[in-house]
Amino acid sequence: MKRILVTGASRGIGKAIAQRLKDEGYEVVTHSFKSEGTDLKFDIANREECRRVIDADIAANGPYYGVVLNAGIASDNPFPALEDEQWDNVLRTDLDGFYNVLKPIIMPMISSRIKGRIIALSSISGVVGNRGQVNYSAAKAGVIGAVKALAVELAKRGITVNAVAPGVIETDMIKDMPVEEVKKAIPMRRFGKSEEVAALVSYLVSEEAGYLTRQVISINGGMF
Ligand code: NAD
Fold first, then answer.
1. Is the model's pTM score more than 0.90?
2. Which of 17, 118, 122, 212 lies at a CB distance of 3.0 to 4.6 Å from 126, suitable for a disulfide?
């Protein structure tokens, strides 16, 4: 059975992705912070911890066919008010997390000659930039650069690497937003659902999507 790691799968988009892939028959390994009821637990900002937990998991259970790099945080503030800690936390989590989680996974995937699937959650903020999110936009744009470069490196091995860039999806992450105000900026006048993002990810991980790589797929109700 094809093993797929979904990070940040305790709630929100990651939970919906994990459920969808389970329903489709993949062997899904869920991840989150400590004590959130998932299979693996580590802080994606902690390189040593990522390496230790993922190395042990692969040694015991074999290499991954796919990984959905979904775990992430936002910590918003207008730039003049942005604290050093907010910049550091978001970059360490959202951008370093890409490296920290993927690095221990990639060599076992390559040496097992798996035509694997790597999908990273970016954001509309990383594509067009968003006020109050200079840190988050930088991290999510960084993920897009990493995805595109890695896709070129891995293409000849049949491993695909893509980014998904959601607009506003109804999860805990957006609970402090001015709902009606934000909806006015969305042509569809509604937020997206985690299940709608999961449906897109399910296509990207499928064998059928083998010729689709180095892309950023937006899912945003027509925001741009
Ligand atoms: P969420 O806050 O509901 O869930 C985030 C998940 O990531 C949780 O499982 C949490 O435990 C995990 N996580 C966060 N920091 C972690 C860390 N340091 N180590 C381990 N796990 C950690 O978020 P969501 O709305 O479901 O978003 C999922 C992804 O989609 C994120 O990368 C987010 O940036 C991106 N995204 C979300 C939206 C949106 O509107 N909700 C829009 C665009 C992009």
1. yes
2. 122
